[in-house]
Amino acid sequence: MDLSTYHSHCDFCDGHAPMEEFVRAAVAAGFHAYGISSHSPLPFYARCAMRAENVEEYLSCIDTLKREYAGQIELYAGMEIDYINEEYGPAIAYFRELPLDYRIGSIHYVTHPSSGRLMDMDGGEIGFRTALAEIFDGDLAGVVTAYYDASERMVARGGFDFVAHLDKVSVNAERIDPSITGTRWYHDRLISYLEAIAARGLMIEINTKAYPGLGVFFPHRRYMERIRELRIPVIVNSDAHYPWAINEGRAEAFEMLRAAGFRHTTCLKGGKWTEIPIGE
Fold first, then answer.
1. Given 29, 197, 207, 209, which residue has the most CB atoms within 10 angstroms?
2. 1-36 pLDDT, tens digit each
């Protein structure tokens, strides 16, 4: 089982410890590689996001840790970049020109198609319910549609290496309507998104963050066989916000992948994305 992760946070964004504490935890756990990927700056204030004026320090801190831990672990500078619209996302020049080792494409905000108002679809249940009522007039299907519309636009624009938690909208959507992800239209929309990812030659992560609390992965296990059929490379990531969580759900994710017929996962080796057998 590969011990690496490329989706993690620290106190430059909404992580709960300095980045070196995460690195120390990774070394102690025997990781061969660890990527730090704080939330990107946004064109508006958001508590979870890194501020633009701190990006230079963020990259400098990672460079320092790379030198200090050389020979113990491969460290990589990443960033989880939110796609907001055509003017702000992973493909814009600002993010393309940052000296990052890799970039993650992510959706946390959706735009109402008529009013243009932004909704945070990733908050807690109370916040989601409130925003759903205020911004989308309670139209849950409209939020989900806006999420996958934005996701496919992000993929078409590119500028990143892999897609983060590609069906994360399902968590809050199911809290409102537990049946929604079992509908045919939802299934067809997610399959369409996977096909767009495959057509662009992008990778996806198997995100384990929610597994300890909810028993689910992003994407949901029901889509694993289709992902394999589409030959989309997969990376197992913990999306850790605490140092103790860097390996949560990993063993279960690899077990799920084996059961779905996967033989390889992807990791960074010497700075290059490399397929490795699951058994290694």
1. 207
2. 789 999 999 999 999 999 999 999 999 999 999 999
CB 117 within 8 A of CB 111: yes
Q: Which two tokens mark 198?
A: 């495959």
Would you call the peptide bond into 219 cis, given omega within 30 degrees of 0 as the criterion? Answer: yes
> Which residues contact residue 150 at a Cβ distance below 8 angstroms, ignoring those fewer than 6 apart?
83, 85, 107, 110, 111
In this structure, what are the phi and psi dihedrals at residue 34, rounded to the nearest 5 degrees? -150, 130
Three-state DSSP state, 130: helix
Residues 6+ apart with CB under 8 A from 79: 37, 38, 39, 40, 95, 98, 100, 103, 104
pLDDT at 174: 97
Q: What is the pLDDT of residue 108?
A: 97
pLDDT of 1: 76
* Domains in the chain, CATH or no CATH each: 75-240+249-277 (3.20.20.140)
For tokens 């537990």, the residue is 178
